[in-house]
Amino acid sequence: MAPNVTYDSSGDLEAPLGGVYNEGDIAWVLASTALVWIMIPGVGFFYSGLLRRKNALSMIYLSMMTVAVVSFQWFFWGYSLAFSPTANKFIGNLDNFALMNVFSQPSAGSPRVPAIVFCVFQLMFAAITPMIAIGAVAERTRLGPLLVFVFVWSTLVYDPIACWTWNPKGWSFILGGLDFAGGTPVHISSGTAALAISLYLGKRRGYGTERLAYKPHNTTYVILGTCFLWFGWFGFNGGSALSANYRATQACIVTNLAASVGGLVWMLWDWRLERKWSAVGFCSGAIAGLVAITPASGYVGSPAAVLFGFMAGTVCNFATQLKFLFRYDDTLDIFASHAVGGVVGNLLTGLFAQAAIAGADGITTIPGGWLDHNYKQLGIQLADSASGLSYSFVMTTIILWVMHFIPFLRLRCDEETEIIGVDDAEMGEFAYDYVGIEAELLPRQEYNNTATGGSREPQHTVSISQESEHEKTANASTA
Length: 479
Prior knowledge:
This is Ammonium transporter. One of its GO terms (molecular function) is ammonium channel activity. This protein has 18 helices and two strands. By secondary structure, it is an all-alpha fold. The protein folds into two domains: 13-409, Ammonium transporter AmtB like domains (Ammonium transporter fold, Orthogonal Bundle), CATH 1.10.3430.10; 432-478. Residues 454-479 have low confidence and may be disordered.
C-alpha cells in the first residue's frame, strides 16, 4: 500500500514529521540526477577514446554495466549501508534493506526533499565512482569478473566512505569535514582504487617499449566524453545543494570556472614541451579542474575557483609523471587526475571555504576555512583525505587478491586476449567494422604468403611480432 501523501495550502508536499518538501527543489534534484547519469557514459567515451581501437568498445560497455550493477547494489543494500539513519560512525546497517522505509521519510541530506529523491540522486554518485576506478583495467582484463568486483567494491569501499562523509552519523561529518559533492567518496576513493588495480594487474604487454604505440585512437571520443562530463557536472555539484537556490547557482558558476581554467593551464603546460595545442591535454585539465572543485563547490567563491583550476591543472599534470617514476602502468592517469585532484580540492577547501557561501541556502552553518580564520579546518580536510586514500587502497588490494585466488574471478586476461583485443576476445563485437575486417584479412594474407612457399595450410594464429607490426601500422594510420 502506498503511503498517504498530503499537500499544504501552497501546494508543497507535507513531510510526515512536520514541515514541507519543496516541489521545486525536488524537480531540481531529479533533473540533476539525469545530468549525473549522462556523466557515466561520458566517462566511458572519454576512456574509450584514449585507448587503442581494438579495446574501444569494452570501455563504453563497462560504463553501462556499472550503472546496472550498482543500481541493483544500491537497491539491495548500498543505500542502507551508506545512509541508514541508525548508522554508526563508519557504516550503516540494513534498516533500509531493499529500500524499506525509503519514500516520504526525511532525507539524510536536506529537510526540503524526501528520502526517495535523495536516494536516487545519490545512486548516480555511487554508480559513477567504480566506473572511474575500473578504467585502470583497460586493455588487460576479463570482463566477467568485473561484474563481481564492482558489486563488492561498491559495498566494501564506496558505501563506508560515503557514510562517514555524508551521513550525519559519520565520523568525518561529525568532525566537521567539508565535502560538498564527493572529493573523498568519489574521486579520492576511485583514483586510489585505480592505483591499486594498476599495481595488481601489472603492465600491459609491451608497455614501456618502442614496439607498440599507446596513443589515443579517437580524440573525438575524448572531447565528446569531456562534453558529457562537463555538462553533467552542473548536476553533480549544483544538484548537491539539494535545492534550487543561490548556493546551487554559485556551485554551478565555480564548477564551470574551475574546469575552464584547469583545461587552459594543463594545455599550456603541455604546449611548453611539445609546442602543440593538445585537445587531449585541454580535456584532461578540464576534468582535473572539475575534480578539484567538487568538494569545494558549495563553499567557495568565484575568485577561489580560478586558483582551484590553476592548481589542479598544474599539480595533476605533473602527477602524471608518477607512473614513470614508480614504474606502474596507470593506463588512463586516473590516480593523477582523480586521487591527486581530489586531495588538491579537499585541502584548498580547508583554506578557502566561506561560511557566507555555504549559508546561501538559508540552512547550512559552517565555521568556514582559513579565510574565516578557522585554521583547524585544514587539518580536518587532511585527515579525511588521508583516510580515504589509505582505506580505498588497502581494501581494494584485499578484494583484488581474494578474487585472484578464486580462479574464475581473476581479473587479468591472457596474452592472446591482449594481442587480439578485449573487444574481440571477450565480446566478439567491435567499435568499428574495419577492426573486424582487419582481423579477417591478416590470417588470409598469411595464408597467401605461406602458399607461395609450397604450404597450403592457412595460419590462423597471430604471433606477437606479427601483431606488433600490424598494430604499429594501424596506429600510424590513425595518428
